[in-house]
Write a structure and sequence with these properties.
The complex is a heterodimer of chains A (428) and B (225). Chain A has 428 residues and is of the alpha+beta class. Helix content of chain A is 54%, strand content 19%. Chain A contains nine helices and eleven strands. The relative contact order of chain A is 0.06. Chain B is α/β, with parallel strands linked by helices and 225 residues long. Chain B folds into two domains: 120 residues, Rossmann fold (3-Layer(aba) Sandwich); 99 residues, Arc Repressor Mutant, subunit A, CATH 1.10.10. Chain B is 44% helix and 25% strand. Chain B contains eight helices and 14 strands. Chain B has a five-stranded parallel sheet, sandwiched between helices. A four-stranded antiparallel sheet of chain B has the order 8-9-10-11, with helices on one face. In chain B, helix 1 links the parallel strand 1 and strand 2. Chain B is elongated and about 55 Å long. Classes of the chains: A alpha+beta (428), B alpha/beta (225). At the A-B interface, helix 5, helix 6, helix 7 and helix 8 of A face helix 1 and helix 8 of B.
Chain lengths: 428, 225
């Protein structure tokens, strides 16, 4: 969810709550105020009526509210003493200006008692009240309007504020998204007077600088490690080569020398593969460009064609799409060549290799002797399905490492007696 | 032909020097940055083998100095660092080739001869031995001026042999030359054997003056009759 929507979501919920509570309190307070003012009016009427009644000799009982807004009824003294001044809300048939015929309207009624010439009377006075349902309806409508206007205002203000204030943030974010360790030359930079963004920028740059330092050290370490290992290996290999040239073909020791030389050569290959793997995992290949998988495949097949012919393995390519992948071209070559080479070498005489290039994946299937391989472990380092092949056990691990950095998916499956390797180039 | 080897590892420099001496080159050695700089300044060399990591400085600095005096075109960088950056920089500075340690002596031999050939023949790339001519540009092999058809791998193998005449080449070295870096399959040897067998047949039937001999069963040697 976008920041804008997030803030609007929280603001709209909290404003809804505030306005609802406010409307309720406002309604209760207003009703109280209205009643208080009506009650004061009724009290005033009571005094006026009683004062007017006093000078008269006779009291004219007023039975109902038909003519006036009060009733007077004679009661016993006992009853009179029980009566306190009470205000109640009640309903009464009335015809207002907006009514076509009389209907029940809310009224406020004061009930009281007074004594005149030793006789007791009960007095009831009414005053029409505000209609509560009308009041609620009106208040509700106004509240909803207020709410909608507030939300609209917040949306507009938020949009402007976010776009203006957060501009440096989004700027920094987009720079970070395209930043690649080792290949981007400039650190992300924004110009802003906002302290938080400056802090963020500072933190990001410090982190990046530290990472770059570590990366450079790592790179240097790899270089040094390779130097340290490769040079002794070179000396041993070259010395043995010279020794072999000096020796006599009949010398039985030559056999041992040759074996040692082969072991050293194997060490060299292993070291090179490990270095390649480390370099891939340190993402030191970052020359990403559009790579045509069919071109890379054609090149790999060309390299392997002679040995495939020799092993009587036929290679066929079926292409349903011109697959273009954004990646480092040498890494693409390593992935495809490793897989096709495996497919050719772990094959049987008269067997075949089928390559299928689809919309976003390449599948390489080959006939072979062995039973289905362990799909979970086959991509692990040093996992060898058949011992004694002289392989480094790193070929598929290298494929997997390359797929990992680009978030491609490398998988193995056994289908119809064929070993199949599939690289799915969609971003996972 | 005078060759300068700049390499800080004494044992390695000895092995390289011994191998190049067999090809009758005049070999000079420098084991540190200062000596190398002095020698490059004072003498002319037909080929310079230059290590990048040196005691006292970076080999690329020496290459820069060579470039300034217009002598960088016959340099082969030999480095333990298989670093693309170094390779690109080295070649930009005018180095002719970049060889990653460890390498087979036969490989170094082939690269040195390629540099010398380019220098002497001004672009023409022909290797001659007896009645045989291998034209690297046209990719044809002639015996007594008659074309002998070879497939791609046979051609590569023959070129390698001709560049390492009279020298032992192990099967592994050949496999690496033909397959590149990732030769880790024993099947390769069968294939090499098969290619050599075919090549021998073609050499015999065309009455070439060269032949491929097996040595100890693990390598081969090309001899001129």
């Amino acid at each position: 969810m976008k920041l804008l929507n997030q803030s609007v979501k929280y603001l709209s919920i909290s404003i809804l709550l505030i306005i609802s509570v406010w409307a309720l309190v406002f309604y209760i307070n207003m009703l109280d105020e209205i009643k208080e003012s009506i009650d004061e009016g009724l009290e005033n009427y009571k005094r006026l009526i009683i004062r007017r009644v006093r000078p008269d000799s006779g009291i004219v009982p007023q039975k109902d509210f038909d003519e006036t807004f009060f009733t007077i009824r004679e009661i016993s003294s006992d009853q009179a003493f029980q009566i306190r001044d009470t205000y109640i809300d009640t309903l009464m048939y009335m015809q207002d200006a907006d009514d076509e015929e009389p209907e029940l309207e809310p009224v406020r009624m004061l009930t009281t008692a007074f004594e005149k010439n030793g006789r007791f009377y009960e007095l009831k006075i009414i005053n029409s009240m505000v209609e509560e349902d009308d009041l609620i309806e009106e208040l509700f409508r106004e509240t909803v309007y207020l709410y909608l206007i507030l939300i609209a205002a917040i949306l507009v203000i938020n949009n402007i504020v976010l776009q203006r204030l957060w501009k440096p943030f989004y700027n920094l974010l987009s720079q970070l998204k395209t930043y690649r360790l080792g290949s981007s030359k400039n650190l992300p930079e924004i110009k802003t007077r906002t302290r938080e963004f400056n802090d963020l920028q500072h933190a990001v740059r410090t982190l990046l600088q530290h990472t770059i330092e570590t990366y450079e050290q790592q790179k240097q370490f790899i270089g040094n490690a390779s130097h340290e290992l490769q040079t002794p290996l070179a000396i041993a290999m070259n010395k043995l080569e010279l020794f072999l040239e000096k020796g006599h073909p009949e010398d039985p020791d030559m056999e041992d020398i040759i074996q040692v030389l082969q072991i050293i050569e194997r060490l060299v290959r292993l070291n090179k593969s490990l270095l390649l793997l480390t370099k891939i995992e340190n993402r030191q290949f970052a020359d990403d460009q559009s790579v045509s998988i069919s071109e890379v495949t054609a090149q790999a097949i060309q390299e392997l064609q002679d040995v495939a012919d020799f092993k009587e393995v036929s290679i066929s390519v079926e292409e349903t799409s011109g697959l273009i992948v954004h990646m480092d071209v040498s890494l693409a070559g390593i992935v495809i060549t490793n897989l096709i080479r495996n497919a050719v070498f772990h094959n049987v005489s008269g067997g075949n290799v089928n390559i299928h290039i689809a919309d976003n994946a390449i599948t390489i299937c080959n006939t072979g002797l062995s039973a289905p391989l362990d799909a979970d472990r086959i991509f692990n380092r040093f996992h060898k399905s058949d011992t004694g092949s002289g392989g480094t056990g790193l070929g598929l691990a290298i494929v997997k490492a390359i797929c990992n950095i680009y978030r491609f998916k490398a998988s193995y499956f056994f289908d119809n007696g064929k070993h199949c390797f599939k690289i799915d180039f969609t971003f996972h | 032909m005078k060759i300068l080897i700049v390499e800080d590892e004494k044992e390695l420099i000895e092995a390289i020097a011994a191998s190049l001496a067999k090809e009758h080159f005049l070999v000079e050695k420098a084991t540190d940055f200062r000596t190398a700089g002095e020698k490059m300044h004072l003498y002319e060399y037909d080929c310079i083998l230059l290590d990048i990591m040196l005691q006292g400085g970076n080999g690329l600095q020496l290459l820069e100095q060579l470039k300034q005096s217009g002598k960088a075109d016959n340099v082969i960088i030999i480095s333990a660092k298989d670093s693309l950056d170094d390779k690109i920089r080295g070649l930009e500075l005018g180095a002719d080739d970049y060889l990653t340690k460890p390498f087979h002596l036969a490989e170094l031999n082939a690269r040195v001869k390629a540099v010398l050939r380019r220098k002497k023949l001004e672009g023409k790339s022909i290797i001659e031995a007896g009645n045989c001519v291998l034209d690297l540009n046209e990719r044809v092999f002639l015996v007594n001026r008659e074309n002998v058809p070879l497939n791609r791998k046979e051609f590569d193998i023959l070129e390698y042999f001709l560049l390492n005449k009279n020298r032992l080449i192990t099967k592994n070295t050949l496999a690496e030359r033909v397959w590149g870096d990732n030769t880790d399959q024993t099947d390769n040897f069968d294939f090499i054997y098969y290619q050599i067998k075919n090549l021998r047949k073609k050499l015999q039937s065309s009455h070439a003056d060269i032949k491929i001999e097996s040595v100890y069963g693990i390598g081969y040697k090309m001899l001129e009759e």
